[in-house]
Amino acid sequence: MTDFTKHTMDTAPEESRPLLENSQKAFGRIPGLHAVMAEAPALLQGYQQLHKLFAEQTSFDKDELTVVWQTINVEHECHYCVPAHTGIAKMMKVDDAITDALRDETPLPNERLEALRTFTLAVVRGRGNVDNEAVQAFLDAGFTKRQVLEVVLGVSQKVMSNYTNHLAETPVDEPMKAFAWEKGRKDAA
Question: Are residues 171 and 32 in contact, defined by beta-carbon separation less than 8 angstroms?
């Protein structure tokens, strides 16, 4: 595998430095994913913008954001993002039952969240080619056409991070190592 640099403020390309400063302010540290993405300033900028848009400007609540993020992370088998979003869910005070069900691929605590996971998986697995029945089932669960498209935004964000982590084999950040995860292992974290 190609060795990717985990950039610091000193080693990052000039265009990435303000973006890493944003990461430092937001997280109190530079997450490994951001340090790797800094190699390509446009990627890091795009990821930060999509994250902000998805987390702050969609109509999803904290539980629903977590369902979209973790559904994609688990489906993509992202060794970095599943632990990271486990920690983020804890910071957001998402019920551990939701996080555990997502990590373990077991039923979620309510039908609405399960419908969101099912639809998100349909979007990911179908690469956006989702049949009308799946869209209607999502709408029938109480979601909106707006939220159909907001799932696409969440998928876009997670493709950037999950694929980067696969290519770079980004090491899990120290604060998130307690939430280590492997697909199919229910005893992790």
Answer: yes
- What is the third-level CATH fold of 58-179? AhpD-like (1.20.1290)
Q: How many helices (H) and strands (E) does the chain have?
A: 9, 0
Q: Give the Cα separation of 183 and 46 in Å (integer).
A: 28
pTM over 0.70: yes
Locate the domains of the chain by residue range. 58-179
Task: State the first-to-last Cα distance of the chain, in angstroms, to the nearest integer.
Answer: 27
Contact 33, 84 (CB under 8 A): yes
Q: Is residue 89 a contact partner of residue 98, using CB atoms and an 8 Å limit?
A: yes
The one-digit pLDDT tens for each residue of the chain (189 residues) are: 689 999 999 999 999 999 999 999 999 999 999 999 999 999 999 999 999 999 999 999 999 999 999 999 999 999 999 999 999 999 999 999 999 999 999 999 999 999 999 999 999 999 999 999 999 999 999 999 999 999 999 999 999 999 999 999 999 999 999 999 998 766 555
Tokens of 125: 């697995």
Calpha distance 181→185 (Å, rounded): 7
